């Protein structure tokens, strides 16, 4: 019988425990799983050893699919078993790798082949296998529906194994875990509250690897889940490659592997770069295009749910080599599930960045059951990002008159503002970042200044949508003959 609370599981070591315990156990979320794995690991000496790992998995579809993903066909196979019947139930789990046939004899020593089976027997065997597979799929579906009550299965889970197509977001689930073992870390290129980002190599290509702290397990699960949403891929959304959990008896790593962009974040890029008007417009348009794609729902058999980011800021936007941008970091994202008319919010204790929080978030009046409210909060944050970009544009006075790079509200709050600091400035005083007079003398800066003012309006319903901002910039491009992309 399933418990109505989280259960205690054996874990492989202190660093493998997602809740930070150091007593060799971890506690799952409600309806989570305990797991145990056995995997062949190749040592530095070239020997293959068996390695057992145990720990906790989440109750959502990503945890459920991991329980079904034993990797037997690979050169070094891995078998996983899960349970959720009682505390420490995974101590009894002893996964065993299947026995493999002996290596084939050299041609000169191989025995003569036996007569092959009759065609009728082959057909009968194929039909039996198909019947067994159909029964297994039916039982699996029934089990999942019992867990979810009357709700239908979540759309992303239904397509989790289909992500090899261009309409998805990355590689197939099993291939992702193979990729993680082939990654060669090169150097650390950034740190944040979630963990650390590394430049790495995979098959000769440069990739970025985000390594999460064990305390940020919820962010890793959520970001992986969002990236694997069908039709998520877009040129202005960071390209996802793979995700995996690697671990031994003494450590655990939660990895997210994505495209690498050498220019870094928009925050870092604007520190030194001075933009001309065409570059500013192209960059602004790309950010808005990425956000419009996230906010858009696409209906159909393999439709895409609408997604709100909830942490839009210049540090979560990467600059590509062609000057366009890509939105990253989906650890706080929420989705709108149209079939159930509800907002899918992951259980995550992390909050957004206080400096970029919308007034309704700071005032704690945002309606969490209204998905449009999350989208409008994103638009407020987008207005602040546009302000950062416009300060670094050399129009209306030349490069010598460009304002130095600054964060929004840098002149009225501390470097690391508290919730109360931002509430006093944004909600009580209703202040917004100042717009320099020189911006009004150049069409591009004046147009963006008008857009950002409508994006950061105090009243959420008055704010522009991402699609409206995108169309406005596209019209400005057409009227002024400025190339955006």
How would you characterize this protein structure?
- The chain is α+β, with helices and mostly antiparallel strands.
- The protein folds into three domains: 8-92, CD59 (Ribbon), CATH 2.10.60.10; 162-259, Phosphorylase Kinase, domain 1, CATH 3.30.200; 266-480, Transferase(Phosphotransferase), domain 1 (Orthogonal Bundle).
- The protein is built from twelve helices and 15 strands.
- β7 and β8 (205-212) form a beta hairpin.
- The longest helix has 29 residues, at 119-147.
- It starts with 7 loop residues before the first strand and ends in a 5-residue tail after the last helix.
- The model is unreliable at 100-115 and 148-168 (pLDDT under 50).
Annotated CATH architecture of the largest domain: Orthogonal Bundle
Helix/strand structural class: alpha+beta
The helicity comes to: 25-40%
Number of strands: 15
Order of helices and strands: EEEEHEHHHEEEHEEHHEEEEEHHHHH
> What is the CATH topology of the largest domain?
Transferase(Phosphotransferase), domain 1
Classified by CATH, the class of the largest domain is Mainly Alpha
State the strand order across the main sheet.
6-7-8-10-9
Shape: elongated
Query: Helical stretch count?
Result: 12
Low-pLDDT stretches are 100-115, 148-168
Give me the CATH superfamily of the largest domain. Answer: Transferase(Phosphotransferase) domain 1
Tally of individual domains: 3
Largest sheet: 5 strands, antiparallel
């Amino acid at each position: 019988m399933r418990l109505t609370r989280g259960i205690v599981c054996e874990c492989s070591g202190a660093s493998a425990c997602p809740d930070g315990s150091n007593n060799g156990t971890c506690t799952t979320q409600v309806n989570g799983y305990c797991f145990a794995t056995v995997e062949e690991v190749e040592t530095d000496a070239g020997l293959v050893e068996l390695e057992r790992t145990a720990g906790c998995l989440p109750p959502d579809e990503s945890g459920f699919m991991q329980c079904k993903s034993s990797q037997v066909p690979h050169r070094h196979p891995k078998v996983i078993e899960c349970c959720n019947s009682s505390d420490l139930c995974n101590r009894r789990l002893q996964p065993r790798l299947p026995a493999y046939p002996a290596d084939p004899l050299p041609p000169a020593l191989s025995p003569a082949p036996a007569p092959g089976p009759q065609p009728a027997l082959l057909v009968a065997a194929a039909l039996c296998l198909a019947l067994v597979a159909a029964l297994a799929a039916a039982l699996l579906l029934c089990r999942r529906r019992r867990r979810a009550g009357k709700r239908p299965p979540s759309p992303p889970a239904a397509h989790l194994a289909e992500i090899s197509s261009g309409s998805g977001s990355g590689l197939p689930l099993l291939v992702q875990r193979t990729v993680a073992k082939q990654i060669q870390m090169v150097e650390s290129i950034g740190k944040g509250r979630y963990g650390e980002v590394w430049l790495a190599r995979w098959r000769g290509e440069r990739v970025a690897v985000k390594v999460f702290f064990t305390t940020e397990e919820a962010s890793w699960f959520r970001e992986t889940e969002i990236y694997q949403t069908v039709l998520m891929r877009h040129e202005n959304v960071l390209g996802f490659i793979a995700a995996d959990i690697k671990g031994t008896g003494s450590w655990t790593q939660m990895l997210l592997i994505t495209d690498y962009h050498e220019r870094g974040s928009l925050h870092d890029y604007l520190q030194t770069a001075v933009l001309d008007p065409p570059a500013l417009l192209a960059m602004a348009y790309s950010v808005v295009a990425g956000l419009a794609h996230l906010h858009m729902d696409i209906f159909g058999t393999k439709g895409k749910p609408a997604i709100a980011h909830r942490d839009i800021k210049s540090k979560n936007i990467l600059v590509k080599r062609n000057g366009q941008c890509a939105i990253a970091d989906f650890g706080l994202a929420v989705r709108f599930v149209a079939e159930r008319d509800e907002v899918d919010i992951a259980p995550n204790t992390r909050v957004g960045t206080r400096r970029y929080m919308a007034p309704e978030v700071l005032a704690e009046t945002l309606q969490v059951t209204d998905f449009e409210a999350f989208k409008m909060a994103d638009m407020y944050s987008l207005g602040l990002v546009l302000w950062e970009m416009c300060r670094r544009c050399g129009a209306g006075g030349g490069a010598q008159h460009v304002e130095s790079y600054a964060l929004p509200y840098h002149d009225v709050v501390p470097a690391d503002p508290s919730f109360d600091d931002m509430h006093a400035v944004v909600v009580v005083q209703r202040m917004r970042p100042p717009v320099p007079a020189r911006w009004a003398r150049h069409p591009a800066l004046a147009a963006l200044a008008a857009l950002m003012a409508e994006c950061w309006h105090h009243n959420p319903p008055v704010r522009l949508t991402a699609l409206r901002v995108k169309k406005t910039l596209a019209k400005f491009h057409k009227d002024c003959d400025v190339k955006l992309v």
